[in-house]
Design goal:
Layout (H helix, E strand, L loop, with lengths): L4 H9 L13 E6 L4 E5 L5 E9 L2 H20 L7 E8 L3 E9 L7 H4 L5 H24 L3 E3 L8 E3 L15 E3 L7 E3 L2 E2 L12 H10 L1 H6 L4 H14 L6 H13 L12 H32 L15
Antiparallel strand pairs: 1-2, 2-3, 3-5, 4-5, 6-9, 7-8, 9-10
The structure holds adenosine-5'-diphosphate and magnesium ion.
């Protein structure tokens, strides 16, 4: 993959984390997760960059890159398609070490959280079934494997439908999916996380870090290793996507899937209330978290006159 390091470095040195699109090096935002910014360089499009300004030491960033590469290999080995990837990191004047994870760009219209708004309810159910089949590969492996355990974030925005026609989006059982969210390498060898879990906290406001660590970290990371919880998260997403009417149908799809194709994993069926309660709780945690980050940003930039390392998305409709 051809990464233009000079241009990225220039981007980094002139970044305006409050309005990243107004920096000296023009970019287009492709999407953002709850903690990251994904963009392409206008001058050299078709590569999606994810900026991770969370490392203090060379050892940390190198560990992360090797985990990232290994995770890519593991997913491929399990039969899950992932985009071509590469990484580049450098010392930045402002935030010590910055890592950019590069991926071939996937057409935005084919990504799960976009495409679901253009499909029939039945097609969305097919899409979720296809996601479940991909995830089954991971948890069937985990059931067999003693030392290596693999985690995954199954949210609909992390999957794209390969080769879908944006003019006429359709999903059938024959469609292939690709998994995008590989920059958080989630696997454990003999119970040791490949990724330093503390890195998850790096984007948290400094005054919340300790509290979060004590309260949530085990929970937050651990839930990505639990097929049932990952599925609840996937379905609860449809509240956030303003498609709550689809949820009862989707619950039927996944419970049928658990009792049929995933029978060997012996997963307890999921009830509507669980998904609803989970969503309400999750929403509250994120609202608290995002507000705390806004306060943190204010303190860092206005009071300490420092650079704030992260891009904070605008209000997310929930
Ligand atoms: N390779 C890509 N091509 C196009 N858009 C992408 C690509 N990777 C990510 N995105 C967009 O950015 C969003 C966040 O990326 P993701 O890797 O899932 O980050 P996070 O870990 O923050 O969830 C995705 O939901 C998608 O909209
Ligand atoms: Mg994601």
């Amino acid at each position: 993959m051809k990464i233009n390091m000079d241009l990225l470095q220039k981007f980094e040195e002139t970044i305006d984390t409050i309005h990243p699109e107004r920096g000296k090096v023009p970019i287009m935002i492709l999407g953002y997760g709850e903690i990251s910014l994904v963009f392409e360089l206008v001058a050299e499009p078709n590569i999606a960059y994810k900026r991770l300004p969370i490392f203090d030491t060379k050892t940390q960033v190198q560990r992360h890159i090797s985990a990232y590469k290994m995770y890519h290999k593991i997913l491929e080995r399990l039969g899950i398609s992932v985009p071509l990837e590469d990484t580049v990191w450098f010392y930045s004047q402002k935030s010590n070490i910055v890592l950019y994870c590069a991926q071939e760009k996937i057409p935005t219209e084919t990504i799960g959280n976009k495409i679901i708004h253009h499909l029939s309810g039945e097609e969305v159910e097919t899409l979720v079934l296809l996601v479940m089949r991909q995830m089954l590969k991971v948890w069937s492996f985990n059931q067999r494997s003693k030392s290596l355990k693999v985690g995954l974030d199954g949210q609909i925005s992390n999957w794209a439908v390969v080769g879908n026609n944006p003019q006429n989006p359709q999903v059938t059982e024959e469609d292939q999916l690709i998994y995008l969210d590989t920059s958080t390498p989630m696997f454990r060898i003999n119970n040791v996380d490949a990724m330093d879990p503390v890195l998850f906290l790096k984007s948290a406001p400094f005054f919340l870090r300790w509290l979060l660590k004590a309260l949530f970290l085990e929970d937050v990371v651990g839930r990505y290793y639990d097929f049932r919880l990952v599925t609840i998260d996937l379905i609860a997403n449809f509240f956030k996507e303003q498609l709550p009417n689809l949820i009862p149908g989707l619950i039927k799809v996944i419970n049928d899937f658990f009792s049929d194709e995933a029978e060997k994993l012996d997963i307890t069926p999921i009830a509507y209330k669980e998904i609803h309660d989970y969503y309400e709780e999750d929403k509250q945690i994120w609202v608290i978290f995002q507000n705390a980050r806004l306060i943190d940003r204010y303190i860092q930039t206005k009071l300490f006159r420092k650079q704030y390392d992260f891009y904070l998305p605008g209000k997310i409709k929930r």
